[in-house]
Amino acid sequence: MLLALLTACRVNPFKSEGEHKYFSSKEKAIEHYIEDNDVRGSVEVITTKKEETILVTQFRDNTYFVGELKEDDGEFFTAKLSANVHMERGGAWELNSMNGNEYTIFFKKENEPNYKQLSNDEYFVSFVEGHAFDEHSSNHNNPITDIENVKE
Hints:
It contains two helices and ten strands. It has helices at residues 2-9, 26-36, and strands at residues 43-48, 53-60, 63-72, 75-80, 85-86, 90-96, 102-108, 116-117, 124-129, 144-151. The strands form two sheets. Strands 1, 2, 3, 4, 5 and 10 form a six-stranded antiparallel β-sheet that branches. A four-stranded antiparallel β-sheet has the order 6-7-9-8, with no helix packed on it. The termini are far apart.
């Protein structure tokens, strides 16, 4: 009875039964993400100015999706933020982080200002804060602060 009472005292807004699987390290959470989503391509970890960890994921040759890695009380979990998108020459789509921040992600074959190259050399990627498909707008402030490959 005491054990159940102590367990019930820890309230966690992200943990709900079956919603996320938690891990003791970022690496283990990302390994699970890769296996759970049957990823056969690369995974890039992108850190934003708002300290969010976005996972740009090459699902198959020309198919990508976006996920997120999140920490909660020293434990880590991942979630898929977008559907799979098949691209031949590039693309863009809107997404929301788990904190509710809005972004638009852009993929291009050629490098341009505010773009970062993915490690698979297939695309250059950029984000815009907000849902806006005009990447050349005056408010194009790429929120990417760091990009690291975790799976090739």
